[in-house]
Design goal:
Keywords: Membrane, Transmembrane, Transmembrane helix. With about 290 residues, the chain is an alpha+beta fold. About 60% of the residues lie in helices and about 15% in strands. It has two domains: about 80 residues, no CATH class; about 150 residues, Endonuclease, Chain A.
Length: about 290
Amino acid sequence: MAGDVVRRRSRSRAGSADGFARLVAHTDPVALIGITLSIFLSVTLDLTNAATGVESLLAGLMGITISLLVDSLARAERRFHLRTLLDGPPWLVRATPQLAAAIREAAERHAGTRVAVEAQHRYEEFRLEAEQLAAGRVIRRGDDDEDLVGATRDCARELLGLTNVMPRASGELSWWRGDVGRRYWEANVAALARGVRITRIFVFATLTDELTELVEKQRRAGVRVGLLPFGAVSTHLHVNLTIWDGSSCWEARMTAHGEISENQFSVNRADVDRLTRIFRLCADRATFQD
């Protein structure tokens, strides 16, 4: 019996502490500081006899009232800002409260476990990805060809490509023989059939028979192919890229072994202009067989 009483009191104290923590967490810092200063002012006035007890109490209550008013205005502004953010596509309005509720439940119900840590980690990843999307960029794994192939299928007028054949083994040519490369080439052939102009530059260390065969295959299909030896341009221009209709672009991020670790599709104007400049600089030095 005594043990039950102790446990109930412990839970009561824990609940009170938790409630106070929630109050502090959801109160504007300015209001907390204002309330604290108001209480301190009231006590100081009373202890120093600078004011009567009633005057000290009124001064403190006035300060607390002003602080709570400021907190109320801040809350109203945050609610207005949140409503403004949610004034968007229907799917965003529906999903955002559900997402926030799920993350909060995972963090609070499973506090102190790996689940709560993972919830925060995934939310941070989502936030970073959302910021990239807001900037007009989609970043995917190296073996994900959704944007590369999809944008080629959507291309209406012109496709510009730059492929670096790494100076080791098969290098980028193995990519062209793989599943992603084959799907990309099929999309290229379909684009040529509907009148899209394709210009591709191969940057190479050695003009091997394998590379020559690939170049001739693409030329026969209708691609305008240029060849650019390593050393003809600065190494910072050795970028694997594709540009569609001058309005969107794709860039591969490479490992030290010449493998694509991730790729970035972008409609960001700065990205498109940067990759277009790189392509033009390489095209000025490349040899085309017109």
